[in-house]
Amino acid sequence: MKSLSTLLVTISLIFSCSSPSERPADLIIRNASIWTGNDQNPSASVLAIKSDKILAIGNEDILSSYKSSTTEIIDAEGKFIVPGFIDTHVHFLSGSYGLSSVKLRNAETPEEFARRIKDYAATVPEGTWITEGDWDHQLWGGELPRADWIDEFTPGHPVFVTRLDGHISLANSKAMELAGVDANTQDVSGGDIVRDPDGSPTGIFRDNAQYLITKVITEPPPEQKDKAIVNGMNYMVANGVTSVHNMDLGASTSIIDQYERIRDKQIIRFYMAVGLSNWQQLKEKVERDGRGDEWLKIGVLKGMVDGALGSHTAAFFEPFTDTPDDRGFFVMDEDSLYKWTSEADKADLHLAIHAIGDRAINTLLNVFERVAEENGPGDRRFRIEHAQHLDPGDIARFNELGVIASMQPYHAIDDGRWAEKVIGPERIKTTYAFKSLLEANAMLAFGSDWAVAPATPLEGIYAAVTRRTLDEKNLEGWVPEQRITVEEALKAYTVAGAYSSFEEDIKGSLEPGKLADFVILDQDLRKIDPADIRKVNILATYVGGRKVYSK
């Protein structure tokens, strides 16, 4: 998997060994406070760039060696520079559509929820599907919304708006009519249709049951998808994100074509996942076309074991505290999980699989262990996406098995408002267990899960370092013993992100020969009150030595 990136960095290093006078920099940024992410050279004040790569990094004494009459020199005036943030878990297309769709995330009452859908419906033509939304029923006490809340406002608009975790959606009656869903519709394995006592659907569909509706949603035209992706990229660079790992649900290899189509507009780098069940398609594409390049890389598969905590679909060993008859469920049966994982691994494909509840995580670790033993040694870098609620006995297994914990710290300060009432005081001790994983020498990589959470690494770092919940009721941190340092969080957003896509040779830290992807911040995150981290501003974002965002 590393052959392309290794070749690229080798060529770059050969050139970087040339005499500085023969290769003056195109751009030099001086008088900066640089956190490089490189343990061998952790700090610097000068960054020299040639084309799209770092030519040199050091202190003021290297300036004369790399500048010429054509070199652009920028005085950073002491500002903080870090490697470009790598978001290891986004749902890019849905997040991009959500930028222009109805906004329900902070709707605090059922009335506000319904009013926002009513107002949005008035702005789009009749027949247009209203999707995304990212609502949170916990904000109004936990009652799930119903179709009859919005039917009178949307008689001509099919609606399928999703809870912020992506595991529950609300359909209005128009959407259910178009999908042919009624009281006679059979239940779905790995999902749930919420019904009234007479068997009629209320409009709530959990996990796999969502496909009953999504299969009839009208596919947007290519130009609308392209526009959404461009808008999404602009959103990312404004937040300092230079690379993303795209984990769109249910994706086949056709999703890759959408991103190849906008190559001339590309300003961030993509690691594109394909759905686990489509592993053979991906195998064939890799054999035919290769694994891509530093802008668009393929070779990773996204699977799912269970659902999410907020929707009570995460799979636990013990029942939920607030629903004693419910332990959640698997959305993929264990036999299929093992079979597809084993075959994909034999094909040298990368596995990144969603598991949230302790039973789901334990099962997935067992599958990874079995596959590695059966298929023999290899540089697999198996990933568990989310890895939120750990059985204490499984923490050490991440390092032992070489499994990456691909986590989203913003979820901790979001779920922390209500998680204890769902799983109790004991299980929360190893919920979002960042510190415990690092102490066990596990590889911890951070992302956002956008659009489930905002794609804002600074808020993610704030969350990991402070663990202050969004309701400001845990000023010393929710489960404070799991807080980590600023530098540990920075590494999870940079160095570990690159490692998680087999790209540590070309990005993730600021070193000669690596891609010139970096971010300029107005304050040094290491020197301010951690509570102020989320107030820090992104001043500029550079990708491949080119400024793609400026505040």
Give the full name of the CATH homologous superfamily of one domain: Urease, subunit C, domain 1
Query: How many β-strand runs?
Result: 23
Estimate the mean pLDDT confidence. Answer: 93
Structural class: alpha/beta
CATH-level-2 architecture of one domain: Roll
Task: Estimate the helix proportion, in percent.
Answer: 25-40%
CATH class of one domain: Mainly Beta
Q: What gyration radius follows from the Cα positions, in whole Å?
A: 24 Å
Total helical segments: 18
CATH topology of one domain: Urease, subunit C, domain 1
Strand order of the largest sheet: 8-14-15-16-17-18-19-20
Write a structural description:
It is built from 18 helices and 23 strands. With 551 residues, it is of the alpha/beta class. Among the domains are: 1-84 and 507-551, Urease, subunit C, domain 1; 95-214, Diaminopimelate Epimerase, Chain A, domain 1, CATH 3.10.310.70. α10 (334-346) links the parallel β16 and β17 (350-355). α3 (92-98) packs across α7 (222-238), α10 (334-346) runs parallel beside α11 (358-375) and α16 (457-466) runs antiparallel to α17.
Task: Summarize this entry quickly.
This protein is α/β, with parallel strands linked by helices. Helix content is 30%, strand content 21%.
Describe the protein's topology.
Layout: H1 3-16, E1 27-30, E2 33-35, E3 43-44, E4 46-50, E5 53-58, H2 63-66, E6 72-75, E7 80-83, E8 85-90, H3 92-98, H4 110-121, E9 130-135, E10 159-163, E11 168-171, H5 173-179, E12 191-195, E13 201-207, H6 211-214, H7 222-238, E14 241-246, H8 254-260, E15 269-275, H9 279-289, E16 296-304, H10 334-346, E17 350-355, H11 358-375, E18 383-386, H12 395-401, E19 404-407, H13 410-415, H14 419-427, H15 434-439, E20 444-446, H16 457-466, H17 486-493, H18 495-499, E21 518-521, E22 538-543, E23 546-550
Parallel strand pairs: 1-6, 2-7, 8-14, 9-10, 14-15, 15-16, 16-17, 17-18, 18-19, 19-20
Antiparallel strand pairs: 1-4, 2-3, 4-5, 7-21, 10-11, 11-13, 12-13, 21-22, 22-23
Helix pairs in contact: 3-7, 10-11, 16-17
